[in-house]
Amino acid sequence: MLGIVIPYFKIGFFEETLQSLANQTDKRFKVYIGDDASLDSPKALLETYKGQFDFVYHRFEKNLGGSQLVKQWERCMGLVGNENWFMVLGDDDVLGPDCVAAFYRSLPEINDAQVQVVRFATQVINDIGAVVSDTFYHPVLEKATDFFYRRFTNKTRSSLSEYIFSKNAYQTIGFYNYNLGWFTDDRAWLEFSKFGLIYSINDATVFFRLSAQNISRDHYKLQEKTLERLRFFKFIISKHILKFTKQQQRHLTLHYEQLVYKYGKATFSFWVLVFWTFFKQLNVVQCVKFTRRMYIHLKQHGQ
Predict the structure, then answer these.
(1) Which residues partner with 117 through β-bridges?
(2) Domain range holding 31?
């Protein structure tokens, strides 16, 4: 069965989230709601949904999401029972009515393909629930590296709520604790899939809400997000760059180099990492060009 985990904190859009669960045409799921010591108790609201779908509510007395969001996700995962698949749904996001049904219709193909990560088509909605984006569809089976590169080049989008993960993959690898959960979801679908295939369900949609309360909103904690972007791309470059195509490797490595010049510090260890990365790509020309670029950067910045 499918477990739907909701790390709860904000009540503003929560009723729409719950209503989308009540509207599911297939009720073969169980919801686990982990209240992050919110000042806005959802208990009265939850009472109105008793009997409409199966759910468990647990209140944590200490707030974690304010300082360690991923740790809040993890303790909510501790509520999950014997379900083999799960999704982490934002307390302001909305499932289309056929999401669960579409998952079970696709499950034989998912199992045949031996994939550990499933995703839905998505649309972005705003504060009033109006759709403000096109629908984002995906190849039914796509390499996670190709999807990451499409996202990196702004040809698609991604957020945690639209994924269904194998619980076995989660228990083996876990969520990586980036500040604000920034890039935690990207690392999850890359690692849980073992940088292999992701299965897409395009006939059901998850609606991701971009609002004034959302972590993804513009200009919110930009410094923290930038630091996590540096950490994430260092992980990609140092551990997994050769899993990408030659063109992708070059583009991603150059992006990381420019990130460091702009936001980080060009140290000797950074030179070793990028030089060795280009060398592994058998790109001697880029090794020389990179060394020259770094020399110019250090000279310009008095390092």
Answers:
(1) 165
(2) 2-209
190 lies in some domain:
yes
CATH number at residue 130: 3.90.550.10
Distance of CA 203 to the CA centre of its chain: 21
pTM of the model: 0.94
Q: How far is CA 169 from CA 53, 149, 158, 180, 203, in A?
A: 26, 22, 19, 22, 25
Residue 294: CA atoms inside 13 Å, Cβ hemisphere, count?
23
Q: How many CB atoms lie within 10 A of CB 239?
A: 10
Extended strands (E) in 177-260: 197-209
Which of 157, 182, 209 marks a domain boundary? Answer: 209
pLDDT band at 58 (very low <50, low <70, confident <90, very high): very high
Query: What digits encode the pLDDT tens for the residues 67-98?
Result: 999 999 999 999 999 999 999 999 999 999 99
Count Cα neighbours of 85 within 13 Å in the Cβ-side half-sphere.
18
pLDDT of residue 170: 98
Any domain includes 19 = yes
Categorize the per-residue pLDDT at 303 as very low, low, confident or very high, splitting at 50, 70 and 90: low
**Half-sphere CA count of 274, side-chain side, radius 13 A:** 28
The last residue of a domain, from among 209, 234, 265: 209
Angle of helix 246-263 versus helix 222-235 axis, rounded to 10: 140
Do 116 and 198 touch, CB atoms closer than 8 A?
no
